[in-house]
Amino acid sequence: MAAVGGEKAALFAAAILLPFLVGMVSGINVAFVGATFPLLLGLLDIMHLQHQSVAYLILATFSGFTGVMISPIHICFMLTCEHFATDLFTTWKRLVLPSAGCALTGIGLFFILI
Fold first, then answer.
1. pLDDT over 90 for what percent of the chain?
2. Could you report the per-residue pLDDT of 59-109, keeping only the tens digit for each?
3. What string of H, E and C letters represents the secondary structure of the chain?
4. What is the structure's pLDDT at 2?
5. What is the dihedral of CA 30, 35, 58, 94, to 10 degrees?
6. Measured on CA atoms in the order 30, 36, 39, 41, is the torsion positive or negative?
7. What is residue 5's predicted lDDT score, i.e. its pLDDT?
8. Is residue 99 within 8 Å of 72, Cβ to Cβ?
9. pLDDT on residue 98
10. Which pairs from 69-78 meet CB under 8 Å and 24+ separation?
11. Angle at 66 between CA 64 and CA 78, to 5 degrees
């Protein structure tokens, strides 16, 4: 049985929110991939949507990467701010718009591939 509208909407939300939150909390790429990709692949298998795995994993990758980039504990971000003697919050505000562009690119690619 293929997934219906509500189930696909929940899967879409999970593919965005889970990697984003794990990426933001951890600040490293390996964490969101290791913690969320097995879950998403399992859900895709249960829902008989394996043929859409690439689209969902691309969506999850862009979402997780966005979370990592705006994470205040991302070590590269912290060291860069320290090296250039900039204010962490002021610099972080400048990352929001490019990070939103990254997330929207992932969503766009998802809809192209789906």
1. 78
2. 999 999 999 999 988 888 889 999 999 998 999 899 999 999 999 999 999
3. CCCCHHHHHHHHHHHHHHHHHHHHHHCCHHHHHHHHHHHHHHHHHHCCCHHHHHHHHHHHHHHHHHHHHCCCCCHHHHHHHHHCCCCHHHHHHHHHHHHHHHHHHHHHHHHHHC
4. 56
5. -60
6. negative
7. 75
8. no
9. 95
10. 69/95, 69/98, 69/99, 69/102, 70/24, 70/95, 70/96, 70/99, 71/23, 71/24, 71/25, 71/26, 71/27, 72/27, 73/26, 73/27, 74/27, 74/28, 75/27, 75/28, 77/27
11. 110
| Residue 44: half-sphere exposure toward Cβ, Cα within 13 Å | 18
| pTM given for the model | 0.89
* Half-sphere exposure of residue 53: CA atoms within 13 angstroms, side-chain side: 13
Average pLDDT over residues 41-63: 96
Q: What are the residue boundaries of the structural domains of the chain, listed by start?
A: 5-113
Q: Which amino acid is at 69?
A: M
What is the identity of the amino acid at 58? I
How is residue 105 written in tokens? Answer: 């690119």
